[in-house]
């Protein structure tokens, strides 16, 4: 396994849940939309249901499921859902919904012995592209391995065209009524198509800094990576399910295995 480019555990922690998974959490006040463009888990679940032709009883893997909003929503609609994530804090929160999802702590670079086990895989809210590119491509091969023949994948990522059009070097990402705040500085490296984010977390008067990285993808690049990993019929959509345009904040990529 390759060395991590950033410390995911310091990023996806209780502070993250405080800002992004509490009723008090807020939307970005200005600048590029890094988070999700969906108003709730049900909207995302409805979109996935439609794009992936989901049916009750299907075996679905939510890869990097986070605190489980999409996994729980798909389970509530009758799918047999497994949620895998590296964050114990997030999985603990996810399990409180009690929807019967199987929660697995693991690493997307090396999935368990699940070869051919899933009808569908979902990977949601920019939960791909955290590693060097060889490793990112290996993650796609892992996804192909755990899907059955004829299985399908949906990934929800930032839409590069919109992200760049809205790009701003710094912004207040979340500001809560109680004064807690996330302030982000972005450094975009065109040679790697990664943006490095220096995040300042201000909570209860305490200040903490961390950095994380994300990879931006143009659709044709990811289509070619998916094709090389064994997928066919790769399509790009916006968050409303229509064909991807430069205006959509989100890029939903769907693909199938032969
Ligand atoms: C942006 S969050 C998205 C979470 C969730 N999919 C959602 O829609 O809310 C990215 C997730 O990737 C997880 N993650 C980071 N590195 C990982 C790894 N190597 N293997 C599995 N999960 C990882 C984090 O813990 C976090 O939950």
TrEMBL record:
Residues 60-151 form the Methyltransferase domain. The keyword Transferase applies. Pfam families: Methyltransf_25 (PF13649). It comes from the Bacteria. Keywords: Methyltransferase, Transferase. One of its GO terms (biological process) is methylation. The keyword Methyltransferase applies. SUPFAM superfamilies: S-adenosyl-L-methionine-dependent methyltransferases (SSF53335). GO terms for molecular function: methyltransferase activity. This is Methyltransferase type 11. It comes from Paractinoplanes toevensis.
């Amino acid at each position: 396994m390759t060395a991590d480019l950033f410390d995911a555990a310091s990023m996806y922690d209780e502070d993250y849940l405080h800002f992004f998974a509490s009723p008090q959490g807020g939307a970005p006040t200005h600048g590029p939309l890094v988070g999700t463009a969906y108003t709730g888990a049900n909207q995302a679940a409805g979109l996935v249901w439609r794009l992936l032709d989901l049916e009750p009883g299907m075996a679905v893997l939510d890869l990097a499921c986070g605190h489980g909003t999409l996994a729980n929503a798909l389970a509530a609609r009758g799918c047999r859902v497994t949620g895998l994530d590296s964050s114990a804090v997030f999985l603990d929160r996810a399990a409180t919904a009690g929807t019967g999802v199987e929660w697995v702590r693991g690493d997307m670079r090396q999935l368990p012995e699940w070869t051919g086990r899933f009808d569908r895989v979902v990977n949601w809210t920019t939960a791909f592209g955290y590693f060097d590119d060889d490793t990112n491509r290996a993650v796609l091969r892992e996804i192909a391995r755990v899907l059955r023949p004829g299985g399908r994948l949906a990934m929800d990522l930032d839409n590069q065209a919109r992200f760049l059009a809205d790009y701003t070097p710094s912004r207040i990402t979340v500001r809560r009524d109680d004064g807690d705040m996330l302030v982000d500085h972005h450094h975009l490296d065109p040679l790697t198509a990664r943006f490095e984010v220096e995040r300042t977390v201000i909570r209860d008067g305490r200040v903490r800094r961390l950095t994380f990285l994300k990879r931006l993808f143009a659709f044709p690049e990811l289509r070619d990576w998916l094709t090389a990993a064994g997928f066919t019929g790769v399509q790009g959509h916006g968050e409303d399910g229509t064909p991807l345009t430069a205006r959509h904040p989100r890029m939903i990529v769907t693909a199938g295995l032969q």
